[in-house]
Amino acid sequence: MVIKDVAKLIVKKFAFEGFNVHPSAIELLKTMDPSELDSVIKSICKNCSSSFIITAEDVKKVLESRLEIRNHSNVKKTEYSNKNKIEPKIKNQSNNQKIQVIKDVSGNSCCQGKIEDFVAYFNSRYDKLATILKKRINPVPISALRKLKSQNVEVIGMVNDVRETNNSCIVELEDKTGLVCAIASGKLKDCATELLGDEVIAVSGLWNGRYLIADRIVFPDVPINGNKKDWGFSIAFISDTHFGSNTFMGEAWQRFVNFMNCEVSDERFEKIAESIKYVIIAGDIVDGVGIYPGQENELEITDIYEQYEFAAEQIEKIPSEVKVIISPGNHDAVRQAEPQPKLPDEFASLFPKNVIHVGNPALITLDGVKVQIYHGRSIDDLITDIPRLSYEKPEEALIELLKRRHLSPQYGKKSPIAPEKEDYLVIEEVPDVLHSGHVHTFGTAFYRGVFVVNSSTWQSQTEFQKKMNLNPMPGIVAVYNGKNVVKLRFAR
Ligand SMILES: [Fe+2]
Question: Among 1, 315, 461, 474, which is most exposed with the fewest C-beta within 10 angstroms?
């Protein structure tokens, strides 16, 4: 951008807020980092609400106070880090932030889509989930049932089919040895009708020589853990920024950026902002190109590379001492099928140094706190197939994923799955947090000690969403410290 254009832009921005601006004030503002211009102009207008013309003095006051806030904020953050110091070495090397990627397909993808890949994939799914279930039940192989007389048994199987009759539900289960039909009736029928194809469960009941009359359906589920303790730092959860879309909510985003930089009027919010060591973004960083028919009419930036350039500029506004973890979604420039690898270097290298890129899903630890990140595409399938779930309460769908210990239980629905030799979508390790996005609605819950958060979006309702009658809840951020959840609204 040429200097003359910057001056014009400054005049235009002040005019939009209802102010004239003196040339000496423009000279001062022109020397600033353009990415900070919006927030500075907003602060000036707020400070000078009774003025008619903005002078150089008005600008100086705001610039000086921002400098003070920043210095103040840096000092406090250093003090905070010292308090939580474990090893001086760690602090010196990485600002006392220890990030580990436990599970991520990035760099490990080896599927070619051959039949044997699918066999290996479903065997991996079955084996992982059966291992969890075997800690609670003592199953017999399905093929062994033929030799048994009428008796109580337990089996583990992958759900092949669910058929509802007047009084019962017939569930076809398959293991590596054979098939069996389990009949669930009475109260168990309701539970059976919510079973999803390809999920792995255990059923106990009476084997009558032909059918298994179920008396219990056991999900892999997560164990109960009610312990909550303050981690001594917070994580901010966001998702679906959709940079590049013409419905991207720039003003709400700027308010979030101001908050992250401790530029807030309320001391309580300042304290929350100071406590944030990590920001996690659960996918759809950019709006992408060619994601749905007619998308080009809803793009502000039509070039994918430029979308990521813009995204990187926006992420750079988050203080550099905060680590930002970015996982992709279905709008990002990686393969559509899950598990998705992290953003390729071509785009990842545009982002500042405090950004860590991971795949989708990714299991990571942040100073020992285990976070399962998943974009959330399977939420669409769950809401379609389980009538009591809704887009208004996405956290309830996430709880169903935890119960099934799988991030995308159904194969062949809206969420495509790549048949990797290992099923990366199984929730093998119980996380402290499950973080998703995708459906652009917000919701949090605690399920058996796991904090479940579906972050919203930074995009207002698109034409596509209008047609689908989807109502986003944009600009809401959850900040969690292991004990307390704070929900902050940045969209007006
Ligand atoms: Fe999205």
Answer: 1
